Amino acid sequence: MSEKMRQGIHPSVVATLFLFLCSPRMDFLVLFVFYLTLVLISGVMICVCSKTGYLKGPVRRGTQIFSYIIPECLQRAMLRLHHYLFHTQNRTFILLHLTLQGMVYAEYTWEIFGYCQQLEFSLYYLLLPYLLLIVNLVFFTLSSVTNPGTVTKANELLLLPVYEFDEVLFPKNMRCSTCGLRKPARSKHCAVCNRCVHRFDHHCVWMNNCIGAWNARYFLIYLLTLTASAVTMAVVSAVFLVRLVVVSGLYQETYVDDLGHLQVMDTIFLIQYLYLTFPRIVFMLGFVMMLSLLLGGYLCFVLYLTATNQTTNEWYRGHQGCCPHVARPPSAHPQVYQNIHSHGLWSNLREIFLPAAVHYGGKKK
């Protein structure tokens, strides 16, 4: 353990630090927490409101307002960039994913790993994030390069009887307006990849690939390991900072406030001091904590879909009522979507992790 960690903090240094923290320019902690809270609340509200359609009006009005403020040339450039990033196949988000992952692991290796070794952390505990990284990159690659289940003229007849048509989201004898192929139940044409995908879940920009029947298992394991690595790094970083405070005895220090009174070190003061001493570690901790919450929430949603044998496309369309426009008699009652593909937890998991058994074994008529 370094000499800096062994020595206590001199009261005069603490008092100077306190005056600095109380200055108007140092409301970092409050602003940072407010920012994280705002991002999380905004994300939740967007998910909820997009499901109910409440955001359509405000978004349309906001777009109209910004169209008067932003120059037209900048609007066209933003639209082209948006179209390139989200409506064409490109590797931008793959590079961004790998860059962010590399930056987090570089900071972990450069600072946290060495400090934790000085504080005599278990080596197995410190190496766990690297093990998760290796597994995560393997399944990231598999999710990106594996054919998700492209429907072609050659396999069209093979895929048609695999799933039952529910006559709501997936009517019989429907042809893709783009490919011209007969659409198997649970398939969808991806406008980004320009192909029909069997058991289509969603197009993932981070993978530059669709998630479908053949790579859903890889995507699920990728998401599990990514969430686990974020949580593990958050735990290691938090435990390191807590142990550092305990070993250095910083929590027992006192300072003199601006009224001349002796005050005991409180939690807010400790966090701000740690940020000034280890800014990159504290910032990384905030980042991986926020990432853990977002990934954990999404992972729970994906696990729910897996356990109930639904896809993101089916869940969204079923809750939005976005069913195909099929000609029905005027007196016919509107049909409500029901999940007819769930056959129990183990059968649903088998369908994800052993898709060949479903497609070439016992097909559902």
Question: How would you describe the shape?
Answer: globular
Intertermini distance: 67 Å
Radius of gyration over C-alpha positions, nearest whole angstrom: 27 Å
Q: Which series of helices and strands comes N to C?
A: HHHHHHHHEEEEHEEHHHHH
State mean pLDDT (0 to 100 scale): 82
Q: Can you give the helix content as a percent range?
A: 55-70%
Largest sheet: 2 strands, antiparallel
- How many strands in all? 6
Oligomer: single chain
The low-confidence runs, each spanning 5 or more residues with pLDDT under 50, are 1-26
Strand order of the largest sheet: 1-2
Provide structural commentary.
This protein has helices at 3-6, 11-21, 28-52, 56-69, 72-87, 92-118, 123-145, 156-159, 216-248, 267-277, 279-307, 312-320, 345-353, 355-361, and strands at residues 188-190, 195-197, 202-204, 209-211, 254-256, 262-264. Helix 9 (216-248) runs antiparallel to helix 11 and helix 13 (345-353) packs across helix 14. With 365 residues, it is mainly alpha-helical. The protein has a two-stranded antiparallel ribbon. Helices cover 61% and strands 5% of the residues. It has 14 helices and six strands.
